[in-house]
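Task: complex structure prediction.
Instruction: return structure tokens for all chains below.
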Amino acid sequence: MLPQKQTCCWAGCIWWLQPTLRGIGATPPLLHYVFLLACHRPRCLLLINSFLTGDTSVLAGVYGPAEIKVSKELHDKATIEVILRPKVGLPAIQEKSQELLIRETCESAIMGALHPRSSITIVLQIVSDAGSLLACCLNAACTALMDAGLPLRYLFCGVTCVLDTDGHLTLDPSSKQQKESRAVLILAIESVENKVLTVASRGAYSATELQQSIAAAQVAAQKIFKFYRDSARRRYSKS
Amino acid sequence: MAGLELLSDQGYRVDGRKAGELRKIQARMGVFAQADGSAYIEQGNTKALAVVYGPHEIRGSRSKTLHDRAVVNCQYSMATFSTGERKRRPHGDRKSTEMTLHLKQTFEAAILTQLYPRSQIDIYVQILQADGGNYCTCVNAATLAIIDAGIPMRDYVCACSAGFIEDTPLADLSYVEEAAGGPQLALALLPKSDQIALLEMNSRLHEDHLERVMDAATKACKDVYAVLDQAVKEHLQEVSAMLGDRGMA
Amino acid sequence: MAAGFKTVEPLEYYRKFLKESCRPDGRELTQFRTTTINIGSITTADGSALAKLGNCTVICGIKAEFAAPLADTPSKGYIVPNVELTPLCSSRFRPGPPGEEAQMASQFIADVIDNSQMILKEDLCISSGKLVWVLYCDFICLDYDGNLLDTCVCALVAALRNVRLPAVKINEDTGLAEVNLKTTSPLKILKHPIATSFAVFDDTFLLVDPTGEEESLATGLLTIVMDEDERLCSIRKPGGSALSPEKLQECISRAITRHKEVQSLVNEVLESVKSEK
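Output:
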């Protein structure tokens, strides 16, 4: 007999506030303004809203593995859905293409074959956007998956790099820096081999600049993974 | 009267054709790999593409299933860049829906649907460039695509339009002649048995003239048939030559 | 026998080939399918091109229209790409509004146009604040067999080079635009971005220009868009197998040679079109 739906279903929910990594290269990267709070009910998290000002934050919820509509069912792996909700209004084509990118990144991390014919839904609600939004969404998605206890091949994190007109590289830009830059690169790095999982970009840049950005992102990724670990430790040591 | 003279005193039309003359038809079958059958046809400047999938099991709602014959599913669409003005909606507008219905009716009459009960045949036609006679070009393209897919038909379906200008029936109207607003007749014919699969007429035409226009359209359809038949034969020869080569090796 | 093996164990079937560094269709791993480009075949469009990579066929038609510019960019025209994946090109697409893949492709093309700065939007201005050109670039996929993005970008570059816009003057008395169809001029195209796609197989093999079948079996996809100055205009790697920076560099080198191949092909076709006239 199948266990009851409530008990067999993992659910995780994460409030991700983009850690600030500004100044990589010159000074050691700093992680501050970081809150990682987790709760099984999104409702509780909304109360924290008033604490937050300024930086980018995204609320992520993971539901599943759960039942699925027959039309969407895949017989050999889980169907992963990502829903990206903008702060105001309805999702436009921009959000749709970002959704696709996040989904495919999550798909490669989640061991979908363990949950055939079921659905895993990741809901991302943008709370405030102060730059590096897509990277923030990726981080939120990964921590939420972690919190949901879904088996993952590796962890992943998103890092945004901007290149200005002099070719100067900045990590984790604000929206102003992003707007003024010549090129923006969003990279997702995986935790096991430190390889590049996802690349998306805006603007034009050279191959050398790409390699530089990847190297910088790989360094930053280590900080983020450490942060994941610390947060998880803190969360589970409390109770 | 508009400045444009559609039929000169010497009996030539705007593009230099005689009254009963067709535009140049070029056809190619089996142009795409994905589809079960496909064909590309050019009639003068009108260019159309037809693709056939099937017969396969019913997709979408199962309630459409017919237990004694196959469902014929058509979609007619015009590329946004096919007309002088950019088309906002390539398909789904009222005119395209009407065309879709006409194509469906035409091919339900011609395909031996009773051979494939509880199945579906999809016919998709795409106009890439429009210069009059869109319906007819689509029917001709679809006929070739169905033959390419190997779906049995009663006969070829050949379609051609005809008009009536200055007391003369004209075959295979171009866009300029269509736009002049005279009577217009579209005929889809099964040429061997002289059976009509679809006949449609717009505008007004005196009953006395109908027979002459019909005769012109019928003759034009038979001319189209000769060209299509030639295209099929050439295609067959090509294919069998290729198979023959492989057989030798 | 082989056909049966392929149906039952498609992955194993591919692995057998990849071990010998070749593919079932006879190509090497770094080899593109035959690319054909046909320019200017649709006379009702202001510019058109048909691009074919093996079986994958895309036709691009460009229509220019007048429009009022946006208030915050009064001297900029705009380019609107739209990719259509109808059930005509493959049975995997359903009729109805554009699906996820079509939307993604449209967005990708729009990004390529923006990122590469191939056309200065200011060049599409007729009268600042009043009238600008809009270029509607409509792509119709006629036969879907993998590597849609490369085919679309090829068609786009070829079609844009085929565009001729009529001279337009604003009549000062009436304020209306007067179009002179006799004097037409081509677009000023500053950069020619070309896309090169790869499929990653079993996390190790890199296959250039994947077919539909290869795409569905692959563990990861990667598209690199590059212009003639070897600048990257867009990289799209949506998840899948993780790649090391060295592997990425390998792909970039292949993209550089691919750019030269396509560029010379487009030039060749344009020359032959010109000499025909």
